[in-house]
Amino acid sequence: MSETIHIFGVPMDLGQRRRGVDMGPSAVRYAGLHQRLRGLGHTVRDNGNLPVPLPENEPPDNSRARHLASIAGVCRDVYAATRRCLEHDQVAVFLGGDHSISIGTVSAMALHRGPVGVIWVDAHGDFNTPEISPSGNVHGMALAALLGFGPPELTDIGRVGPKLTAAQAVLIGARDIDPAERLALVNSGMLVFTMREIDELGMAVVARRALAHLRPLARLHISLDMDSLDPGEAPGVGTPVPGGFSYREAHLLMEILADTGQVRSLDIVEVNPILDDRNRTARLAVDLTASLFGQRIL
User: Fold this and answer.
1) Is 126 designated active site?
2) C-alpha distances out from residue 285 to 130, 139, 272, Å
3) What is the spatial distance between Cα 55 and Cα 196, in angstroms, rounded to a whole number?
4) pLDDT-based confidence at 86, cuts 50/70/90?
5) Half-sphere exposure of 249 (CA within 13 A, CB side)
6) Which of 245-269 are b and which e, b meaning 16 or more Cβ less than 10 Å from the residue's Cβ?
7) Nearest alpha-carbon partner for 116 in 80, 73, 162, 154
8) Which of 202, 206, 205, 182 is nearest to 193 (CA)?
9) What is the DSSP letter of 229?
């Protein structure tokens, strides 16, 4: 089905300490995202990049949630941009930037036309809070914030309080979770498929179980952290973890999600061209986006 797809760049790297993901939106555009989506019959409208503070202009910050005020401000802008797009029932694709941008995108999706299901594809749990985070990096707090855990600057984007219940989110691909974060995830009751489940069951079974869990929800948001893939497939990420998805596992997940016809928004985050090999990770991100929005083998 042909869609109007809006693209927004959010070149933010305040949520982590390793520089480079601010160039992710340019790398993904350069890899041919617009052309691929147009080739699938979609109308593509690029809204450029949202303004983001530069780390060089930020004061030194060794707090337990680094650059919190600036990140929250960007997430509010992301929220507003997403709402404007969704008011016309159009699809939104957000190019990060680090994973903290998803606090804004998911908050908007969750407050528009009823509850939304979120599939969070990530090597990490992103379920830290300032009290338990070993690093103070906000990109590792994004999913927790959406479930209402963390500082109000993050949990209250769009409206006060949680944007998701545990039943509305599924984490797929986890393999690097901090000790206190592990306990927080278990206590949340959220469905989590680690790489062990993917190894034992296969990606098709995991994807279909995730969708069955979210079946009561008519719309889906996909938050794709490129570090979910094995570094051999996607070397250009800020926090690589061995043992991730293969090329075909990642495509199969996107293809099964596409079959639902329910995907209304996508984040592509943590692409770091400085660490990449000839834009390989950005090109793979484009390939996966094409699979999510209708590309088929036959």
Assistant:
1) yes
2) 30, 19, 12
3) 37
4) confident
5) 21
6) beeebbbbbbbbbbeeebbbbbbbb
7) 162
8) 206
9) B
Let me know if 225 is a catalytic residue. Answer: yes
Q: Is the peptide bond before 261 cis (omega within 30 degrees of 0)?
A: no
Angstrom CA distances, 200 to 21, 80, 229, stand at 32, 41, 17
pLDDT, tens digit, for every residue of 44-80? 999 999 999 998 899 888 899 999 999 999 999 999 9
- Distances in Å between the Cα of 266 and the Cα atoms of 5, 18, 188, 254, 274 are 10, 23, 24, 11, 23
The CA distance from 147 to 190, in Å, is 10
6 is catalytic: no
Average pLDDT over residues 202-223: 97
* The one catalytic residue among 98, 126, 153, 230: 126
Task: Look at the block and give the residue holding tokens 């305040």.
Answer: 14
Q: Which of 98, 178, 255, 270 is catalytic?
A: 270
- Out of 98, 225, 230, 267, pick the active-site residue: 225
Any catalytic annotation for residue 98? no
Instruction: Answer whether residue 1 shows pLDDT above 80.
Output: no
Residue 156 among the catalytic residues: no
Catalytic residue among 67, 99, 112, 221: 99
pTM attached to this predicted model? 0.97
Beta bridge pairs of residue 237: 271
Average pLDDT score over residue span 103-130: 94
Residues 71 and 50 sit within 8 Å (Cβ to Cβ): no
Q: Show Cβ contacts of residue 196 under 8 Å, excluding neighbours closer than 6 positions.
A: none
Annotated catalytic residue, options 139, 213, 221, 251: 139
